[in-house]
Amino acid sequence: MTYLHLSFYSAFTLSGLGMAFHRTHLVSALLCLESMMLSMYVALTMWPIQMQAPIFTLLPILMLTFSACEASTGLALLVASTRTHGSDHLHNFNLLQC
């Protein structure tokens, strides 16, 4: 395992751990998701370069597109939940209520 792979794996793992253990605000959860997507994007960008295969060069563009859609949906949910609940604390959200 090279240092490049180790850095991608550690960035993804730290983002996942941040998502699992630091669940107080919706903003922090969204930032952890974005850092996971960023580490996956960088890994998918470096993969065709290391394999010297030009066929996989479209994957990072698709990943970036889905990441932008995920970010816009997350920000829309953040704004909507802040308007309805008054804060972005995750413990204030009760999914069983209408």
Strand and helix layout:
Blueprint: H1 3-21, H2 26-51, H3 59-85
What descriptors fit this protein?
98 residues; mainly alpha; Helix Hairpins; 73% helix
What this model shows, in words?
The chain is mainly alpha-helical. It has one domain (1-92): Helix Hairpins (Orthogonal Bundle). The protein is built from 3 helices and no strands. It is elongated, with a radius of gyration of 17 Å. The mean pLDDT is 85. Keywords: Electron transport, Membrane, Mitochondrion, Mitochondrion inner membrane, NAD, Respiratory chain, Translocase, Transmembrane, Transmembrane helix, Transport, Ubiquinone. Belongs to the complex I subunit 4L family. This is NADH-ubiquinone oxidoreductase chain 4L. The chain crosses the membrane at residues 29-49, 55-80.
